[in-house]
Amino acid sequence: MFDYVIVGAGSAGCVLADRLSRDPAVRVLLVEAGGADRHPYLRVPKGVGKLFGNPEFSWHYRTRPLREGGNPEVWVRGKVLGGSSSVNGMVYNRGTRADWDGLAQLGNPGWGWEEILPVFKAIEDNALGASPTRGAGGPLHVSGVRDPDPLCDELVATGSAVGLRAVPDVNEHDGERIGYAMATIRNGQRFSAARAFLYPALSRPNLELARDTTATRVLFDGDKAVGVRVRTAAGHTEEIRARREVVLSLGSLATPRLLQLSGIGPAEVLRGAGVDVRLDRPHVGARLREHRCLALRFRLNAPLGANRQLSGAAAQARTAARYLLTRRGPLARPAYDVIAFLKTRPDAARPDAEVLLAPWSLGALTPGKPASVEREPGLSACAMVLRPTSEGSLAITSSDPDAGLDIDPQYFASAHDRQVGVDLFRRLRDFFAADPIASRITRETFPGPHVHSEEQIVRSALDGGYCGFHAIGTCAMGSAPDDVTDARLRVRGVDNLRVVDASVLPVMVSGNLNGPVMALAWRAAALIRDEA
Predict the structure, then answer these.
(1) Which strand (E) or helix (H) includes residue 248?
(2) Contact partners, residue 321, CB within 8 Å, separation at least 6
């Protein structure tokens, strides 16, 4: 018997396991369906390109076609200790004061900026040192880009030329800005949530880890969650009991799936899947929001950037050798080197778009195949509407835990998202038409100069863009009776069941979500301890 059973050893679960097990009087079990994160590519920041499509290290969730006549896509999540923090692009940002204060204003007290900033500062070991907005000495190492490609300096200078403020720390300001990305990298190696929080905690005798163990149902005694049913790697079924709480931290796709499999969700979905209805909760799996990344790629007029170091077996071998000797070079950098936050229209109240820039150009990701870097020199831009309002959904299709999900992303379904997305695309073109970067470009290779109209821009984003891997909202917290979770992240309608992951966010926190999810879990652990 354990006091707390945490399901999911991703960004949130690793933090929870650390924080809750600090009390030696409680027993904590962390359940993870994936395996160990020992593969060397999981340590190399750019190495994940070799693993991203590999089902041994990641879950692959297939969506509906993104538009009529279009194709579905695959949403990837980490299937390994550390979860998606072990396979992501490592870009670290925190959201803005307005984002967190907005959560509180939606009826979620305790989640405003004054409460969450001290959490970020406690978590961080920031290479830039402590400041009123940064932390130093915490468990999570955060650093900037070491020995950046010279082309990145020109990207930052171009940002200054078009009116963005060049800053050394893009997380220190909330206005329009550009600078080098902060990333969860330490000494040239990925620093996942597992490395930061879980491994130091595993020495405690009151924390146990069950790897390669899949939770298939939440167990109840009346209206009280009392444990989980799991399937081990050997195929055995076991029931694990929790004296105090079951905490679901599987992410915005797998957490609502487990709730639905356990009878908590939209009644018509559950009945259609052959699951007995315990609680009719229409919003479990609904209110899904996700970033859609608009892609632009350019050909350069000189052998600049990183393509020549990352394409072809011989070049890759030389670059890998340099990395092994020095922990430097393109393999030691985050997925994108430069980040910008900007307004798509001058009258916008605050930045409504994020742009990620890199001195390389990459083909589309294909499940089961490694990413392919172009041989000719190129630049890439990945840009997203920061706070999308379009809402999709996900639903189980069977009572079988291994059955696929019905995921409907609903990208660009709202007028807001279409307008901001189109304005963002056009502002990006203005960016790349400005010097000094314009002097390096020969042509736009994707989507191409023929794309101009709103319909063409949106279609290019759906057909050739990317999922942001930032899904939220499927177990959103709020004060209304039909909100899935309350402000303390407790599942309404049952006792001793809590959700702690990105699914509880009712609206998007501006930027990449790995940092906010770890802070959310740190704060949630304090709430859990307060109620013990």
Answers:
(1) strand 237-248
(2) none
Instruction: State the DSSP code for 173.
Output: -
Q: Which residue has the tokens 């949403």?
A: 75
At residue 49, the pLDDT reads: 79
Where does residue 110 fall: left (phi above 0), alpha (psi -120 to 50 degrees), or beta otherwise? Answer: left
Cα(357)–Cα(352) distance, rounded to whole angstroms?
17
Bond preceding residue 388 cis, omega within 30 of 0: no
CB 19 within 8 A of CB 522: yes
The tokens of 373 are what? Answer: 């870097």
Among residues 76, 104, 105, the alpha carbon closest in space to that of 89 is found at: 76
Tokens of 323: 């990395």
The strand pairing partners of 80, in sequence order, are 35
Q: So what's the pLDDT on residue 362?
A: 78
CA 521 to CA 504: how far, in whole Å?
11
Say whether pTM exceeds 0.85: yes
Whole-number Cα distances in Å, 455 to 68, 105, 178, 416: 13, 35, 29, 14
Residue 208 pLDDT > 50:
yes
Confidence of residue 363 (pLDDT cuts 50, 70, 90): low
pLDDT, tens digit, 9 for 90 and up, residues 158-178: 999 999 999 999 999 999 999
Is residue 452 part of the annotated active site? The answer reads no
Is 475 in contact with 499 (CB distance < 8 Å)? Answer: yes
Helices 97-105 and 113-123, interaxial angle, to 10°? 130
Which of 141, 103, 176 minimizes the C-alpha distance to 515?
Answer: 141
Contacts of 479 (CB under 8 A, 6+ apart): 106, 107, 108, 486, 487
pLDDT given for residue 368 in this prediction: 45
Are 202 and 209 in contact by the 8 Å Cβ rule? The answer is yes
pLDDT at 34: 97
β-bridge partners, 297: 380, 446
CA dihedral sign, ordered 336, 338, 343, 344: negative
Tell me 118's DSSP state.
H
Structure tokens at 395: 């639903």
Q: Which amino acid is at 241?
A: R
**Lookup: tokens for 194:** 């597992």
Q: What tokens does 527 get? A: 């709430």
